[in-house]
Amino acid sequence: MSASFDVAVIGGGVNGMVAAATLAKAGKRVVVLERSDAIGGQGRIGEFAPGFRADPLGHDAGWLPPPVSRELGLSGLERVVPEVTVSVPVPDGRLALSRELSSAAAAIRRFSPKDADRWVGFCTRLAKLSGFLEALYVLPAPDIDSSSLADLLPLLGVARKLRGLGKVDMVELLRTVPMSVQELLDDWFDCDPLKAAIGASGVSNIRQGPRSGGTAFVLLHHHVGAAIGAIRGRGYWKAGPDALNRAVAAAAARFGVTVRLDAEVQHITVKDDRVTGVVLSTGEEITVATVISGADPARTLLGMVDPVWFDPEFLLAVRNIKFRGNTARVLYALDRLPDSLQGMTGVLSLAGTLDQLERSYDDAKYGRCSEFPCVELQLPSLRWEGMAPAGKHVAVAQVHSAPYRLREGAWDVARKSGLEARVTASINHAVPGFGDAVRHVEVLTPVDLEARYG
Amino acid sequence: MKRYDAVVVGGGHNGLVTAAYLARAGRKTLVLERRPLVGGAAVTEEIFPGFKFSVFSYVVSLLRPEIIRDLELPRHGLQILPLESTVVPLDNGDYLGSWADPDQTRRELARHSPKDAEAAVLFGRLMHHMAMAVRPILSMVPPDPTSMSPGDLKGLLKFGGHFRSLGAERFHALHKLMTMSSADYLDEWFEFDPLKATKSASGIIGTFLGPRSPGTAYVLLHHYMGEIDGAFRAWGFQKGGTGAISETISRAAQALGAEIRTNAAVEQVIVKNGRATGVALASGEEISAPVVVSCLDPRRTFLQLVDPKEMPGEVIEAIGRFKFRGSSGKVNLALSELPDLTCLPGVGPHHRGSISISPGLDYLERAYDDAKYGEFSQHPYMDVIIPSMIDPGMAPPGKHVMSCFVQYAPYNVNGGWTDAKREAFGDSVVNTLARYAPNIKSAIIGRQVLTPDDIERTTGLTEGNIFAGELALHQLFFFRPIPGWANYRTPIKGYWQCGAGTHPGGGVMGASGRLAALEIIKSGAA
Q1: Mean of the per-residue pLDDT values for chain A?
Q2: Site from B126, B316, B470, B473 to mutate, A interface, most A CB atoms within 10 angstroms
Q3: Both ends of chain A: CA-CA distance in Å?
Q4: Chain B residues touching A366 at Cβ < 8 A
């Protein structure tokens, strides 16, 4: 029985660790309770075949709000943005989008001179609009019910920033957010592979197709923090896929956060409408006045707290939050690197048209795993040392439209191997010799991801 | 050359409303209609001898009550007969009904799902409140969000304040409605799939979206705003068909002093030194007026009626991006006898309501899938009514007219709309109907099939979009038709817009026409 903490943080994912470190810096006594044997949550690296390691969920380094880095004094976070951030197969090779505006425009010119001419304009607009989101994301979500001045100030800040964009960009932002990514790209470009290369980002990790409203926003969201022209190019951490975890863990340690591994919180105890502490699966009780959960809302509010403490409307609202995992990961241990993948530190997106993405979403919509899944391939072993034995390689395939819940039944061995076969076949189609180089495969469906990461 | 205070181009119902309000304010007003009859997409025509059809728009509920009052429409013949029920035939041979009596509806629903029967009561209440909350916006001239003018800032604050006054719970519900798909939204409430399907169907009407696409929940709400005599969510049918509404407004306008000329196609709006000075007709005749109001859709208003060089480049580009994407067709049938539904044999009250072909969410979504890839739906969503059961004057004694609103039929169908394609589309409609009413094929005496291409050709609505532009979130309120020009003005002085391509748009509502007229009067332009 320990009563020496002010705050308990459930889960040692990046957000939990940042919260813990920030509070510890402010003088609170903080304990982080992590259910697995390592912190890092979704950013953990695992060995999936002898000598082969991958961080299955690490797709890009993402956006790190500058204030977080500044306030916690995070170090060792140098980003590498590949020269070619994304490429898509075309009948006679690939369309490679370089982060250099002029080289990308030159590559596009081969398909459409008109699109090449519009490239700089598009990239500038994209950077401006995502830049606005970036400014928005560091503000706390305003409480619209409140009439206190303190709560209204952020709202005014948002309004001021919005108007500060200037007339043209402001209108574009308001117009773009509810649109579908396909409509947005159709406004700009003719070239299908180009639209597919950009548009895949708009349907990344959600159960929507490129024609669904709101996917233009998802595109902007994934470009917060990216340099102008770097399509899907927020890069990766030079120090390794888990660099951010390590930096945050070091900061937490420096500010005196206590981290307990293998400490699974069973429930949050409440008395008289107030949190009184947490109970671990071992039965141990920890008394604290403040609990912060890094677990998702359903797990936290429906799983850890006795429902009697919530209004029925609140519970209903939580139950209505959509999760709907829709992407699978396939990890490949490769004996050798096929020629066409040499030097590919960016993303290879295999969907050559938006219609391909749309059709694979059609399958997911009806609870089927797509017959022709859209795959994005990355090679962690080209980015970092030590991910694979010498001369060997690791490839991670992100598979769109693999629904969490299949209508025909559970994700069993046969369905998983069916998915594996289709994914491998489609990679092999675009990357000759890929299939022959595969030594070992691991398939992680949304169900596996849930089991592994909570 | 004849002189007027204002000329309205196009005698659609919005143009007629504008003219009536202008005349009511003492302005000498002329309406010019290209076709031999007024109404635009709200017309009644005798397509087969003795059989009269509301050719395009076929039901009414959104017509603004203030217009009915201001123009004294009942005195000029407005008489709306309620459509009281909806029946959805199901694939298992059963049906789902919704009746005039709410208790009967609740019991019917409980037969399929007791849980949904309870939820439906709460859902109806919430949607009622939401529609009430959004309703004042229908009567608001959209402010320009980028403008620094005191008037626009005041409008924006009023707009913002309006949402804040909703309170937290309703604000969140509204936020969901504005951003979610109708299927997701309904999933939060209901379990019985055909119920979700038939409710979500109103979220897809006139859009090129499926029920699972975000943004459709708003369209759902838009259709909940209908009211007849103050009763929400009631749809009705005008005696004599939808065209009779246009004639009613036309009579009201004339009684107030407006002139209406049919068979008078406007070729061009005359612009001198950046000012509209009148119109030139196809016949060569010129009519002079300091105010010209276009009731046509935004593409025609901005790009065709005036010389594009009179418009700023960014306006031309913005109008070029305005989405029409007509997605619905209409099939009008003359019948020798009533359709005999397998699920409800014989003649019954369901024949006086709407028959909705929407047996499941997947059914609707698959109908959309066909259209996405450029085909009409093999098994389309349909809203079917039999006007002759409500107003016997629509068909010869013992015979009937049946109106089928059909979705999806994409304007840009693969290979283009040909006569053969149109007939194939008509066949898919009849075959789908025959699944639920097998006698339909032998009962058909006459069949009129209207594709978006036909709708465009007849009414002038670009790409056949029945709302004069998609009701998508990025085309609503201060975006309708384009940002900066949502206040019924255009970059050309004296040239105004009043059609459904402006806020609030869509449906036989008249709100665009009224707001445009009030702005013109307020500005002192006419």
Answers
A1: 89
A2: B473
A3: 26
A4: 362, 365
